[in-house]
Structure formats: C-alpha cells, structure tokens
Amino acid sequence: MLMAVNELAKEYCRPTIDIEHKLGMASFEELRQLLQEEPQRLNTVSRIVLNDKEIWIDRLGQEIVRNSDKERETAQDYLAQEAINRPGHYDLVQDIAYGMPLMDINCRVAVLVPAWLEEDNLPRFLAEFEDQLDESGSTINRSFYEINILVNRKEGDQTDNSIKIIKDFVHEHPWGPLINYYDVELPEPFNNVGYARKLLTDATLLRSISRLEQNGCLYIQSEDADTISIDRQQIIKVINKMDSQPHLDALKGQQDRMPEYLMQNDMLFLSCRLRDFLEAIMSRKKYRNPQDKNWNFSWNRIVTGGWNTVFSAEAYALAGGYSSVYSGEDMDLGNKITAVRGDGTYPNLEVIGRLPTRAEGSPRRFINQIKKGKDAYEDFSDENDNLTIRTLSVEEGLQEISHLQRIDSSTIPILNRFAKGLFEDFKDVNVVGDNRGEVMESLMFWLGFEKDDYTIREDGIDINNWDNVRNKIEQYRQNRR
C-alpha cells in the first residue's frame, strides 16, 4: 500500500475528460471545447415523440434502456484509461477494491461515504440505513445495497476510533446492512473529500465489474458521514426511479440541516435558508436555458451536490469520473454528465432528475461560517477549518454563536451586513440577466420579507425592516414545537 500512495503522489497526471481546478469546477466553455476536439466523448441523448408516446433515444436512434452489460463495458473502459493515465491512483484503487469483500450479485445501490474524523457521527449514520423498507413497508432485502466507508486522513496523522466504531456496529447488527470499510492515509494534496470520493467510487466500480454475475444496473449514492437522517425507503426509491426512467443519469433528493437546531438561532436559520432557497429558485425549469447568454452552467440546473445524490455507474464512467482533488466533486460530475449527454454545443439538463426523498445533515459548516464571517464553502480545502468543523458538536457551536440567537437591536447591524453579503453572493452567481429582479424578489419573499421591507439598488440592497422576518421565524418555531 505504501508504494501505491507514493506512486499516487508522483503520477496523478494527464486528465482525461476532467479539467483540474482548485475547486474542480470546469466551465462549460472548457468542456465544450474539449468535446468539439474529441467528439467521440459525446454520448448524446434526446427526447422525441413516437406514436404519441414520448421516448428518449441515444445518438444511434435507439430507445434508451438500462443494460448492465453496457454499464460493465463502459466501466471497464473508464478504469482501463485510469490505469493508463494515473497508474499510481489505479494501484490504490485496486488496493481498496481488493481489500473489501466481493460485491453481491444483487447489489443495486452502493452508498459511498468518505469519513475523516467522523467517529461521533458514524453510529447514527449507519443506524439510518439499518432498517430500509420496500414499497409495502417490509424490510428490504439486505443484498440490494451496501455501505462503503473510506476512512481517509493525511499521511502521518493519527487515526481516530472510526474503524473500531464500524466494526462494533457490524458485530452488534449482524442482520443489518452490508458494510465495507477501508482505512487509508493520503499525501497532500490528496487528503480531501473530493479525492476520497474518487478513490472510493472507482474502487466500487472495480468491485462491480469483478462480479461474475450482476442482477440489474448499479447506482452510486453519494453521502456524507454527518447525514443525520434519511428516508426509510431511500434505497427502493432510488432503484424504482432510476429503473423506471432510464434516461436519468443522476438524481438529487431534498436536503435539509436539522431544523430543530436551525430554529434556535435566527442567523443560522437565515444563513442556511438563504443557500437553500437561492439554489431552489435558480434551478427552476424556466431558468434552465443554456442558449441564454446569462445562463449559469453551475446553478441554473438541478445541482448534484454532496449527500442524498445518486449517479448511475454507467453515467459516472461515461463522464470520466470525478475530476477534482479538492472539492465540488459531485457538482462538477453532474455538470460533466450533462455535457457529454448534450449535443456538443449545449448540455442536456434533463438527464438529472429529482429524487423523492428527504435527508438531513449537520449545520456545523454554517455555524463555522457565522463564526468566521466567510462563506461556508469558500475555502473547503482549509485543513484547520475542516478540523474545527469535525470536532465541534452542534450544541457547542450554537453556544458560540448564541449572541446572534434572535433578531433585535444588537444583531440588526450584523444582519444588515449579512444582507449586503447576500446581494454580493447573488451578483456573483449571475442568474439569467433579464430575470435578476424577479429572482431577487422571490428570494426575499421566501426569506420572510415583505416588499416594503427592503430596497434593491443597482449596487446592493437596503433592509428597512426586519420585523416581518423575525415574526415569521418565531411563528416557524411555534409551529414545530
């Protein structure tokens, strides 16, 4: 294993379809240029009406169906390229794959979880997957899914108790979900969540194609170890949605961040809801127009990000896998999938759909955002920040920002600065130009403002009244008690 890690540091090189960036986010202009230079990478799909029925066809005019043989061939091609282009990386992928048990021939969903300093969260996370149900409410066949955990840390760092916690959980729940794990040290700059996801997903693909038989296509569910709760029918809903709509390459479920904690602190509530609402508004279908000059490749779409996100194994391989060795890996992968499914000029945004499930994650990163006064994901690769976030409980974090617990005369100046930052974030996102005012008004409405409470200027926003927002947050608290 040491040799594989050393080779990794020297030989992670020559991207395939991926374009390396600090945040792993290739622009569509860059992807479009690459696809025009290498059109064989395109796997265009399109929607047509045939005999009064709407169907999806591939570039050869054939109706799209799920096919595990095609999936295996695509995954084999992808991994063969990884072995050629990144031999050190592929050696480590093999170490991880062969260090786990064989994948069951019935496995349809692989839940993948990077876990650095997550010993406090792992027991609750694993328990959420213990009693998954089928459509009738009966316990689902445990062979239909597995949980794969990569305990990753920087080379030289001491391990925590994560492996012991996983082993104890497996021992105490012998009839629970199939759980695989691997402990790995990674040299800089590979000691991050983005590269951990790539390693784990590539190893999962290798384990899948190593099966002598495979009953159905494989779907990859991306999760975070601090996911607090998931849908009791998560697995079956993934399988049913992907199986019934074979043109879908990815799904995004609803995400929330523990409302019982958010409602305890008004600043935290607004910080999280701002991001949630802005993403939801920008993803509306009316704004998904790649031909508009102001269309935003990353945000005017259904965004694939982090947890409660699913990709088909075939689509992952077609897009060339994860690009980033930093962060933004799931978002970037969704972008790449829509690019390779497009026509080379415009992406196909319809291959990403909604998953009818809800999951809740920890708000700890947003608590840290308030403490630090910077965006929660501004410097995702900051090791000290990540260490602080992972070792601070939500309760401790809420205590540290308790001075911002309520909207009052002492916090309004801080909230006004928050509003200024809101407008700057909004301008940076660059939502479809002609609809900027409409989107901003919609955002302010969902945050709880009335029209007379604020004034939008060309260079900013002025908040004239916080009373309506304060009252609506209080009403929210009362309704949830």
Poorly predicted residue ranges: 1-23
Strand-and-helix sequence, N→C?
HHEEHHEHEHEHEEHEHHEHHEHHHHHEEH
CA-CA gap between termini: 52 Å
CATH-level-4 superfamily name of the largest domain = Spore Coat Polysaccharide Biosynthesis Protein SpsA, Chain A
The CATH class of the largest domain is: Alpha Beta
Looking across the biggest beta sheet, what order are the strands in? 5-4-3-6-9-8-10-7
Judging from the principal axes of the Cα atoms, what is the shape?
globular
Query: How many domain modules?
Result: 2
- The CATH topology name of the largest domain reads Spore Coat Polysaccharide Biosynthesis Protein SpsA, Chain A
Mean pLDDT: 88
Q: How many DSSP H or I helices?
A: 18
What is the second-level CATH architecture of the largest domain?
Answer: Alpha-Beta Complex
Structural class: alpha/beta
Strand content: 15-25%
What does this molecule look like?
The protein is of the alpha/beta class and 481 residues long. It has two domains: 2-264 and 297-361, Spore Coat Polysaccharide Biosynthesis Protein SpsA, Chain A, CATH 3.90.550.10; 368-480, no CATH class. It has 18 helices and twelve strands. It has helices spanning 2-11, 28-37, 68-85, 87-98, 122-128, 162-172, 193-209, 234-244, 259-262, 266-282, 313-318, 329-340, 364-372, 383-391, 394-400, 412-429, 436-447, 467-480, and strands at 45-50, 53-58, 109-114, 145-154, 178-186, 219-222, 227-229, 250-256, 309-312, 352-361, 454-457, 460-463. Strands 5-4-3-6-9-8-10-7 form an eight-stranded mixed sheet, with helices on both faces. The chain has a two-stranded antiparallel ribbon with strand order 1-2. Strands 11-12 form a two-stranded antiparallel ribbon. Mean pLDDT is 88; it is low at 1-23.
